[in-house]
Design a protein that fits this description.
- 4 copies of one chain form a homotetramer.
- Chain A is 26% helix and 30% strand.
- Chain A contains 9 helices and 12 strands.
- The radius of gyration of chain A is 18 Å and the shape is globular.
- Chains in contact: A-B, A-D, B-C, C-D.
- β1 of chain B pairs antiparallel with β1 of chain C, so a sheet runs across the interface.
Chain lengths: 304, 304, 304, 304
């Protein structure tokens, strides 16, 4: 099928805004226990994973999302040995973590074993062998159960969870109570980073509320902004720290770290970009100031 | 008509990627001498201007585009008195320029008088009176003719022209020959900034080529990246200078400038954001390094 | 705007089937007290009226619908002098009725005065002066109230009402109780014809139930089938009679009637077509046999 | 995937009219030597075959198309023993032909062996064993070559070929020269029937020209009209005869034939429907009168 194929995928951002993608090939359509899973080859975007009809990552720019989620956090820790990943079923977050040769244990906890199997089979370049890496431990359970029961502490924790768009299972993974569990599972010099939804001027309540909620637990909370073409909007990450400020690394410092850790070639992240990621538009600062603390009793309810 | 209206607008980014917008009201459908003009009220985006079926600016986030285009350039000049705007038919670039009280002459040159009239009538908050400001001179002619014939020199020149997506009239407004005319019309400490298309990882050849082309004329060329929701992709600006580096302003310095010039409330731009705008992802630097110089003989031909 | 315009209208037939029309011009978007009214100029279809987001009639083929609704019924009556039209806001049913020079009184009852005004203004060729014809009486009220209170009897009654797709105001205009009122308002040799929805093999429950319901009141009930391009599906009419069978007219008999009544040029209906309209596919006969009687207590509830 | 799935298929009728179908499952996407072949399971329509992005037949109503194409022609011949089918790759035309127990030889000629294999595998209820029937001969070659080289004569010939929408291989299967070959391959009391495109008031030039062209060769040419929901428009067949008029069968005569031949249960065709199929609207008769003869030198060129 050429680019002008008649098969299309419609992704709905809201009642008014829809994206219509040309589908070149249908790889998988189905469900796991937890969500609808669709893997398609789209024009321009290449292989693309949809969960519950929202794009998760696309071949063309998954490197942007995963490098932005992982490397700023990892370089902000002086010696990340133990890393915990929550979610991240495609395996690409794990792949980027393992590029840091300081790591000697990477635990990835995803609730959806079927999804991980589908990604391993159909999106092999996302994990690129990471699932079978000797330093990897793969755990299939609810992230909250895992963190609550964890007896070890981690240097870096990365939350790569879908936002609770339909009040689904991740609702209680963005609350004060959960972030306190995260804090207990984190070393004193630990870094916690999470993907936190869009930071565009229309739909930024989720990001703002999560930011406010993190502020209840962590002394340092820094918003980051990254643009992922296949998400069609500016995307927000939040990085927290119990001690140092991740924004204050120098270009030279980062260059040394990347070299020392044997990172190899990157495609998105580079030392000169680091500080820029922390720049925020005024409207975002104002929205953050209005953010409300999310709790188990009053979690995020989609305002769409 | 409520959000779920049945009237839609389809914008095509490529053969594979289309945006489908809910239309709440149709304000104007027609043509000027130069282009198709459509003004619609869309769900989420509000009043929106399309030229030749590409979104130009939307009520919801035109402030981002126009603040990003104008203020970083204006604060990079110590005393901008004479400002030239090329294109910018909506009047919002002019509106932002006039907020700097140093300005005593703002010339806006747009080829499309009918478009300017339509924007003045149907999108009044874009220009917000700027067309009638005593410091404004409005000229309706081809930007190249104007620059070539200009006998005065400007402190800041802002190019707010549509990229030559269909080989149209702006083709020769992005070439080495034109940029040399710009240079001659610019004071020695002048700043030239232009909007230069998308900087996403798929469609960045135009930006890269324009960047390379500017490098033939200007000693300092800086890419900037800004996120505009209604453009669905990261957007690139290019700022050039004959002398100082606009990236090196301090937060405090900018805060003073904004205060001295009586700018008032901004919604997007703020001192702490300035340097971040200049941060570039590695893939963009690599693309820029491959950019080819555009000339009148070999201008940009859309690679879509 | 040329045919390839970017403005579209989406009509939803079901959750799975949608029609996407190119919009060349937007004439009116709004609401009356009773329904959403949209008048657009579409590619291929020309001027088109939508009520509650369903196509009602289009310039390109309204002649088919209105000739099929009116003339088979009118020629089935030997001398139609008094005609009652229920609904038919565009005025085209009235226009066709008035072509029979036997008519000396044509009453049109539509609940929606605003809609009639919009059609008169924006779709003038539909009514073509019929609203101002001296034989016309235009009444704005609920059809049921009118029929219930009518003190005169009619030779032909034509129901040109929208089917109750959303449980709206026409729900009780397709019940046994209402059809008995119709019967009382009809002369003994009177003809009652109504548009009754699609007769395609998927969505034919409404037609079947209305057919069964009419059978409770009228000794002769005949289904007709007509093809209206802009409806995208085969359309069903139901003609009832208290005495003669409208299917048994001869071609020659119809030709004489049309000539005697000075009908003039027709575009769809002709004598040789008359009997064919009554031919029904086997699946439709089987569905009709399963039809259930609709009552005020148990009216039609959309099964979509 | 439920009805509200996000996967869609867009079929374009013209620049202005598009159908958007919900896709429940993707069975096959690919090409044969001759055409693009897509087999999908759509909401409401069920399993559906697209050739070159035009719907060919759908599970929900293929019975209408195939019964209408086959039975009126077969009953119009007193004793159809040898039947030739041109095209008809799905096998459903063959299936219906074999229901007449008079047949002792059914030859089906289709150029596209791969398509026939795909239909046999993925659409088994269409052929329902007909490809393996002892009376069937399956020939894979160009229909024109076959007819030109045929040494036997047939009682009934059925053309189930796609119209030459893009000037493709069927162009010379709708010309005077080809119809003369057909005539030579037909017994003196033979019947030739063909599907001949839409008979809606916008796109009826193809039908009209084919009708005019048949008139050059056959003394009796009769248009038929049938509505197939999944084609979205009224569909036209043309039946020709060298001697008797197929329109003049009586209901009783047809009932006897169907019983004698052991046809069994039908879903669309029935004796009382036969004559109705030949009823034509006036606009169609007028278009037919303007039809132009198609020849090998001047074949049909799509007027879309």
């Amino acid at each position: 099928m050429d680019e002008g194929s008649s098969l299309r995928y419609i992704e709905s951002q809201s009642a008014s805004i829809h994206y219509l993608y040309g589908v070149k090939d249908v790889i998988f359509l189905g469900r796991s226990t937890f969500q609808e899973v669709e893997i398609l080859r789209l024009g321009d975007f290449g292989l693309t994973l949809f969960l519950d009809r929202k794009i998760q990552s696309a071949e063309v720019d998954e490197f942007i999302y995963h490098e932005a989620l992982v490397h700023p956090a990892m370089v902000s820790h002086p010696d990340p040995r133990k890393v915990l990943i929550l979610g991240g079923g495609e395996g690409a977050t794990l792949r980027e973590v393992l590029r840091h040769n300081t790591v000697d244990r990477a635990v990835m906890v995803d609730i959806d074993e079927k999804l991980v199997g589908l990604c391993r089979e159909h999106l092999p370049s996302w994990s690129n062998g990471a699932f079978d890496h000797p330093k990897t431990e793969l755990v299939f359970c609810d992230a909250r159960d895992y963190v609550q029961g964890a007896e070890e502490k981690f240097d870096v924790i990365i939350s790569d969870l879908t936002e609770p768009v339909h009040g689904g299972p991740s609702t209680k993974l963005f609350t004060k109570e959960f972030f306190e569990m995260i804090s207990r599972a984190l070393e004193d010099d630990g870094i916690f980073v999470l993907q936190a939804g869009s930071v565009d001027p229309v739909w930024l309540r989720f990001f703002s509320d999560v930011c406010a909620t993190l502020g209840e637990t962590f002394p340092i909370v820094r918003p980051l902004q990254v643009f992922i073409l296949s998400f069609q909007m500016p995307w927000g990450l939040l990085m927290t720290s119990k001690s140092g400020d991740p924004r204050e690394l120098t270009d030279e410092g980062i260059a040394h770290i990347l070299e020392d850790r044997g990172i190899g070639l990157l495609r998105y992240y580079q030392p000169s970009l680091h500080t820029s990621l922390f720049g925020t538009p005024k409207y975002l600062d104002e929205a953050i100031a209005r953010g409300e603390v999310l709790t188990d009793a009053q979690p995020y309810i989609l305002d769409a």
